[in-house]
Amino acid sequence: MTTNNSIMKNKLSVFASLLVLLIGFFACDKPEAVTNQVQPTNEQSEGAHMVAPELTHILQNERRIVMYKLTMEPGDTLPWHEHPHHTVYILEEGTLKVIYEDSTITSFYSKGLTNFGSPIGDMAINTGETTIEILMHEFYYLDTEEPNELYYDPNQGAHIVAPELTEILQDNHGIVMYELTIEPGETLPWHEHPPHTFYILEEGTLEVIFENSTTTKFYPIGRTNFGPAFGDMAINTGETTIKILMHEFYSLE
Q: For residue 150, what pLDDT band results from cuts at 50, 70 and 90?
């Protein structure tokens, strides 16, 4: 009887050890899978990129700024969604019927059209015959973050030091949106960025000179990035004119 009890205890002990190992394995594996996923905040839950992921492609999601491309084919409907402060840039033109809480507007949106919008809710229907593409920036941080120490000189922005190469499209709430156009052989002199995003509208090759390094790259159409505050200068060393859509977030820090 004692021998049987010992055997039974040994079996239970082995089973318990295996169970602990299995629990430990899954407990260690699960956080890694969760970490690799972008977890939206509650404030973004009604954004277009959340309610219609099949129509949107998130390009950047940093510092509570969401940058995404909205693509609507003829007949597509973007259901009701909510915007924080935001900018709009039309990449491919088309016609939209936009339904607000108390009004409806049908308009043709031409390529390159831009706007800075206040918080609002709406839904949209592509009532035209062409696919429309819109580059959106949603600013969830506005009016909520405390200013931090500056790591750049706001008087050295590219749109200030090189107005002949830049065209300001919007300047609201400490957010400057502009097009930077550099022709072959042209130089954008030393300038300083706050936190910012860029989106390549027309591709080309740039030699970018930072304080401690230099890099030469080809930037294809549609390439994007979220950059911290830093300074640089740029030379178009290619054979094509490069055009870049910039968002500078002076109100972020």
A: low
Q: Report CA 253 to chain centroid distance, whole Å.
A: 18
Which residues, including other chains, have CB under 8 Å from residue 202's CB and lie 6 or more apart?
221, 240, 241, 242, 243
Which residue type sits at 133? E
Average pLDDT over residues 124-128: 98
The residue type found at 131 is T
Alpha helices in the chain (DSSP H): 2-35, 48-51, 158-161
Structural domains of the chain, with CATH = 42-139 (2.60.120.10), 154-249 (2.60.120.10)
Token duo for residue 125 = 């229907």
β 204-209/230-236 pair status: antiparallel
Closest C-alpha among 57, 81, 53, 82 to residue 68: 57
Task: Please determine, for residue 17, whether its predicted confidence score (pLDDT) is greater than 60.
Answer: no
pLDDT in tens, 238-251: 999 999 999 999 98
Q: How many CB atoms lie within 10 A of CB 65?
A: 23
Residue 215, CA distances (Å) to 49, 71, 167, 203, 233 in order: 34, 33, 25, 16, 11
Cβ proximity of 70 and 78 under 8 Å? yes
